Amino acid sequence: MTSDSGSQGSAPRRIDSAGVVIALALAALAAVLVWDASQLQSNNPYGMGPHVMPVVIAVGLGILAIGNLVEALRGNLPARESADTKAVWLILGGLALLIAIIGLGGGFIPATTALFVATATAFGRRAILADLAIGFVMTTLIYVAFSRLLTLSLPAGPLERLF
Amino acid sequence: MIPFYTRLIGAAVALTLAAASPALSQQLELKVMAPAAPGGGWDQTARAMQQALVAAGIARSVQVTNVAGAGGSVGIAQFVNGAKGDGNQMMVNGFVMVGALAMNKSPVTLEQVTPIARLTEEIQVIVVPASSPIKTAQDLAAALKADIAKVTFAGGSAGGVDHVMAALFAGAVGADAKKVNYIPFSGGGESLAAILGGKVTAGISGMSEYDGQIKSGKLRAIGVTSEKRLPGSDIPTFKEQGIDLVLANWRAVMAPPGITAEQKKTLSDAVEKMVKSDAWKEVLKQKGWDDAYLSGDAFADFLKKETVRVTDVLKSVGLVKS
Amino acid sequence: MDAFVALANGMAVAIQPMNMLYALIGVLLGTAVGVLPGIGPALTVALLLPVTYKLDPGGSLIMFAGIYYGGMYGGSTTAILINTPGESASMATALEGNKMAKAGRGGPALATAAIGSFVAGTIATIGLAFLAPWLVDFAVHFGPEDYFALMCVAFVTVSATFGSSPIRGLTSLFIGLTLGLVGIDKLTGQPRLAFGIPELLDGVEVTTLAVGLFAVGEALYVVSRRHHSEEKLEPVRGSLWMTKEDWQRSWKPWLRGTMFGFPIGALPAGGAEIPTFLSYSTEKRLSKHPEEFGKGAIEGVAGPEAANNASAAGTLVPLLTLGLPTSATAAMMLAGFQQYGLNPGPLLFAERPDLVWGLIASLFIANVMLLVLNLPLVGLWVKLLAIPQPWLYAGILVFATTGTIAAKPSVVELSMLAGFGVMGFLMRRFDFPIAPVVVGLILGPIAESQLRRAMSISLGDPMALLQSPMSATLLGIALIALVAPFVMQGLGRFKANED
What we know:
The structure holds three protein chains of three kinds.
Chain A lengths: L16 H22 L13 H23 L10 H19 L4 H15 L5 H22 L14
Helix pairs in contact in A: 1-2, 3-4, 4-5
Chain B lengths: L1 H19 L7 E7 L6 H15 L3 E8 L6 H10 L6 E6 H10 L9 E16 L7 H10 L5 E4 L5 H12 L8 E4 L3 H9 L5 E5 H9 L3 E6 L23 E8 L5 H16 L1 H10 L2 E6 H21 L6
Parallel strand pairs in B: 1-2, 1-3, 5-6, 5-7
Antiparallel strand pairs in B: 3-9, 4-7, 4-8, 4-9, 4-10
Chain C lengths: L1 H13 L2 H18 L6 H12 L4 H26 L8 H12 L3 H35 L3 H15 L7 H16 L1 E2 L6 E2 L13 H19 L19 H23 L6 H14 L12 H16 L1 H7 L5 H11 L9 H4 L1 H31 L5 H19 L3 H19 L5 H23 L6 H4 L1 H30 L1
Antiparallel strand pairs in C: 1-2
């Protein structure tokens, strides 16, 4: 979604393809809601069943999808500047790494250090080793402070068990 | 200024260190989940355990967490997923959860958790606001037979013991159990407010939740579900009023799936020690709960039988589509 | 008047030097844990409660109160400084507070939050002493239809957070409402939009959504546009302390915030979120500087913070008079009492006035301590913003994820956090407002269950919503709030023509 950025905003009355995608996504969400609501059974003989509200929200989303589509076709979306997708992906990579390390039982310190370094790099730092050291010290301090002193349970891996 | 604050931080750290130091290896740091909103029966049980385990010196610290919703289905899902293999966590549950899981076709079942012990049993009560024209269980029965839709019951989550009891009550007095107008609230607090405010006809709950209100005269109890009157109480049973409704809401404690036999033994021993402690007996007296301790295989058996029984009741009143 | 004497007695106990020290330590510990996003005051108290077991009853109660207030203020601090609301009730604070911090006005924002909390806490404590019996009567008569009507008022005022385009604002709101459907339906126990994923049965955690949208989304957005113009943060521009104008603009929002927070907090299902939203939109409507909203208006911090604090005092009303713990926080208060084998209930006020008033006095003293501790620290806090951008944002992300990891260390939950981060980034990029999503997630489910309860009681007759005087009044207010802006506009035009 971030790639088709460009600067269409400067030329009004042009179809904004990202806006069309948003409208389609909203319509799809509405469809999912209706489908999900149809799977529910009402076991309450009085008042409203569990499917009423999803359908109401789906109708709202449908109307908003049309509204957004009209805006997109008119090119009424606000102007956007080009985006540094590489930097965004770098941070998302850092988050993915964090989730993977936590999921695989690698522990809190390596996971958050990875995120720290990835984010610092995305923001233009190039001293990876120095950032590794800073991140490690910081997350270790956080771990010790919260996990040991304040008995908050943070996931422990091989490294954390040393404390 | 700065040295002053530094000293304070030092004091704070020293204090926490002092709190954390004694005999770490022998004493447990437990987490007990109450899969209900604060104030309800499971929450009270979890907090009572917290009180007794710490007071009796069995655990160094016990942390109670609340995960509310749908008769504990939300809580057990989180417990099974989040606490797997963790030998320091337990979850309170009971009758309500058996029904809720069956009714929801929950992807998580009670077979997935490790049963530790049944702790207590509580008798159920039906109350009406003090100003209500309904004085006895027979009055309520008459109202139900006159127009079942207009008699609204407030209680705990859908498919829970309160809900089952509303259906059983209707069935026992010869009304159509399927048509009971039952309104679930997510915690004891919210439903109590609805009853006190006269928004519903009657409220159903365990004795402990409404005890204070009954004693202070804000609510009138029209019947209890025990075989005989409770000791020291003048509330009539349903049985003596000619309505065949006997039911007890049991509460138990479970461990997560995937724990080792050793971890299970540690937890079972801790719970057994707790049940035998004076602190626990004091709690039971205070809350008016009946001790119903049952552990090991006997409890696992009981759990299986109860699951079958509750599911049958729910099917017979149309809450579970068979 | 007895209440007043009892309160004075409680105060006398609380201001002993040793007890003051406990209050300070409590506030410090509470702030330390409370700054983690996702760890709200209730959880902070739960985590630190064992620490208080070691002290004598009076000291323990006081440290307990300190932890509670510290935890609450910790959430506001991160909301203001790094746009990461620590709990759902400080979301409204983040809206204007962070904009102020970015404009070099973090000092006044933190100060107005702390002083506003203090003012609201004080007024609400007095309210508790004198109005509790009357208020509780009002609270129990608040039925499902009245709650639904209150939600309608809240929904109407949400538009204050919409930004420039109603279509995009409504789109955000409906995305939030959709997220609110996820999980087990409270009234029938059936799973909705869970797609067989057990973790989704829990529904979407408000703090996960808020931290994802606010903190992660913002980091992604800032990094994506870094090559255009590097954002320069000036920690302090102008006065570090509140100026005379800041005071003038703050005191009314403090009072109005208290008026929203205390009664709504006293309702068994009232909560802290609704009063903060109501306060935010009221301040936006009433402000003499509406153009500053969205850019860092001090009223938008002062009001919601006061409302948040007052609602916390409000939850004590049903707790102390009826023994009803109506929030997680109140349940923790209950734990505080149960340390002494006491069960709050209708008889507590009569039986143990010393302890009840001791707790209330402790809350008051802890509030004072918070002010004493935090005002001098404001200068230090805002210096955090001078950290170079790469480390600042790296630190923010580490902090934001630490909160989620501590609250719920599951892969699904962390993936949701990352997913909401991407959503926050895209929404910023396409100029969709963020706040309505969180508002929708919080209000949607409450409105739905209360409406369905009301409909069950009335057997599906919608007229029930108008038959209750309270509900009819609130619906009327909602209607006026909906129509008034257009009428005012018309009047304005009319006046302009007259000139």
